Structure formats: structure tokens, C-alpha cells
């Protein structure tokens, strides 16, 4: 049963609920209509009831998120609390998530992966400039915008919900998140480059159809902490070693050995992808001459 069904909520602060779009990690996202102008919006209800200090923390964090403006970040339009449940109103992204577009096991062309990484890295770089760390990057949190662009949804919200909801820990889908989590994050010391690691895991999965590590929660944590990720080309030998090198560098356990910033990771991937395309073009058979030179002296 959803939070709304349990609490018989149909309208929240002037937003009429239409249908459930998504749920996970204790939160629920609904398609809703803003009654004042009939505009479609996405309404996210965060898990757990919030009171006192928890409520203040929510307002401080939500205000900060609502100030973010970036072409690859879903805009937060409004936020509030109803019946002690905190909610956020976001732009509605009508084309679903990248997880829906590319189900588990899909292998994408390196150029497509590069295009996605460029957009996500631009959004994350902006968050980093605002002193925020995403900490929950995964294909499920990447929405497809109206023009087919990638939009970061749910940025930082996981931080709000996890820190505010010790009451409902059993509801979180930890495994979904831990697949993409950086080692330092798993021991409670996330930093900017943890987002680079997560984006590296996502790129790895898109390039070969598998995440670097599999297993239950404990097995995943153990591998992120201690086991080097299997080389990408061991899973997709057709892939260029240049692209492999870039992604593996983002997946290094030692944060100092990753790229200095997520922008540099994206630049390196862009360069490697361009090299591969150039090599492919060079390797194409040369077209046969179609015209004979005119006979000047008949
Ligand atoms: N699922 C999660 N957030 C969403 C949004 N803003 N629009 C559409 N679907 C979503």
C-alpha cells in the first residue's frame, strides 16, 4: 500500500494526484496536476513523518535544492509538508528513466554512452560547484527530458531521506544503490570523486551490459572495497582499449588515482570516443574513383 493510500491523500497543497509513477527507497513519485494552472508536475513524497528538527533540516535542504538551475537537472518547483509527510514538486519528465530506456543487460554504442556521460558530468560538475555531492547516481535516477536530453532527477534527495529517516531503514533498496556506490562512500566518507566512481560504474554497465560487481549487499560492499573491477574488455573484447582505460581510471579504489574532477573524466571519455571514431573512418575502404579524367587530346 502506498503512503497516499494509507493516509487517504488525494490532493496535497493544491496538487491533485493522478497516478503513481515510481517508488523506491521508501519514497514515492506521482504524476500530479497543479490546480492553479492545470500543469502536469511530478510530486515526490519522502519516506517517514518529519517533525521538529527533522522538519527544519528538510526545509533547509529543499530550499538549497530548489535554487539549483541547470539544463541537465530536473527543476524543483515547490516543496512542503502535509500530514507530517515532506514532499517535493518537480518538473514532470514524460519520457521515463534511462533504466527503462535501456533495461539491465543492454549494451550501448560507445558514442551513445559518451553523449550521456557528457550531460550527466555537466550536471554533477555543477552540483559539485554548489558544494553538493549527489551520492546516489544510478540509471534509475536519470530521466529523459522532453527533447531526449538526460536530466538528473533526485539529486541529493537520497541524502535528505537517508539522513532523515532512521525510522524506516528496512524499506531502502540498498542493493540497488550499493551497485554504484564508491568504496569511500560505503565507509561513510563520500566526496566529490565518489560521484565520478558511480558514473564510471554506469558507463561500465552500458559498455558491456554488466556492472563490475554482482552479489548480495555484503558481497557488493566487499568487492567495492577490496576487489579491482574486472577489465571492461574481459566482458566486451570489441571495445577500444582507450575507452576501457578511461572508465577503469574512474573506477580506481584510491580516490587520488581517479580523474581530478568529473569534468576531466568526461573530457577523457570524449577524446577516447573521438579517437575510436576517427580510426573507424580511416579504416573504411577508400571509394573507387568514379570519374575518369577528361581526355584532353582526343
Ligand atoms: N520519476 C521520478 N521523478 C520523475 C519526474 N520528475 N518525472 C517523471 N518521472 C519521474
From TrEMBL:
UniProt keyword annotations, A-Z: ATP-binding, Kinase, Nucleotide-binding, Transferase
Organism in which the protein naturally occurs: Thermosporothrix hazakensis
Protein's UniProt name: non-specific serine/threonine protein kinase
The keyword Amino-acid biosynthesis is annotated on this UniProt entry: no
A GO molecular-function annotation: protein serine/threonine kinase activity
Domain Protein kinase: 15-272
SUPFAM superfamilies referenced in this protein's UniProt entry, alphabetically: Protein kinase-like (PK-like)
EC category: transferase
Amino acid at each position: 500500500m502506498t503512503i497516499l493510500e494509507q493516509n487517504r491523500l488525494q490532493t496535497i497543497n493544491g496538487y491533485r494526484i493522478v497516478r503513481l509513477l515510481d517508488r523506491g527507497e521508501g519514497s514515492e513519485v506521482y504524476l500530479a496536476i497543479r490546480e492553479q494552472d492545470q500543469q502536469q508536475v511530478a510530486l515526490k513524497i519522502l519516506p517517514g513523518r518529519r517533525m521538529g528538527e527533522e522538519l527544519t533540516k528538510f526545509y533547509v535542504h529543499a530550499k538549497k535544492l530548489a535554487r539549483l538551475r541547470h539544463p541537465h537537472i530536473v527543476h524543483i518547483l515547490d516543496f512542503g509538508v502535509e500530514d507530517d509527510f515532506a514532499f517535493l514538486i518537480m518538473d514532470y519528465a514524460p519520457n521515463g528513466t534511462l533504466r527503462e530506456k535501456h533495461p539491465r543487460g543492454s549494451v550501448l554504442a560507445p558514442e551513445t554512452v559518451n553523449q550521456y556521460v557528457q550531460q550527466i558530468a555537466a550536471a554533477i560538475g555543477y552540483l559539485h560547484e554548489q558544494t553538493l555531492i549527489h551520492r546516489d547516481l544510478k540509471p534509475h535516477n536519470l530521466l529523459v527530458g522532453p527533447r531526449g536530453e538526460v536530466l538528473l532527477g533526485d539529486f541529493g534527495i537520497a541524502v535528505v531521506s537517508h539522513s532523515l529517516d532512521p525510522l524506516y531503514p528496512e524499506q531502502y533498496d540498498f542493493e540497488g544503490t550499493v551497485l554504484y556506490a564508491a568504496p569511500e562512500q560505503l565507509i561513510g566518507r563520500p566526496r566529490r570523486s565518489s560521484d565520478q566512481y558511480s558514473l564510471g560504474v554506469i558507463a561500465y554497465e552500458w559498455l558491456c551490459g554488466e556492472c563490475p560487481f554482482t552479489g548480495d549487499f555484503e558481497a557488493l560492499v566487499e568487492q567495492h572495497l577490496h576487489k579491482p573491477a574486472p577489465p571492461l574488455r574481459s566482458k566486451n573484447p570489441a571495445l577500444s582499449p582507450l575507452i576501457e582505460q578511461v572508465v577503469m581510471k574512474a573506477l580506481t579504489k584510491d580516490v587520488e588515482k581517479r580523474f581530478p574532477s568529473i569534468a576531466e573524466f568526461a573530457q577523457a571519455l570524449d577524446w577516447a570516443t573521438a579517437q575510436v571514431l576517427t580510426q573507424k573512418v580511416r579504416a573504411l575502404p577508400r571509394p573507387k574513383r568514379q570519374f575518369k579524367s577528361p581526355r584532353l587530346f582526343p
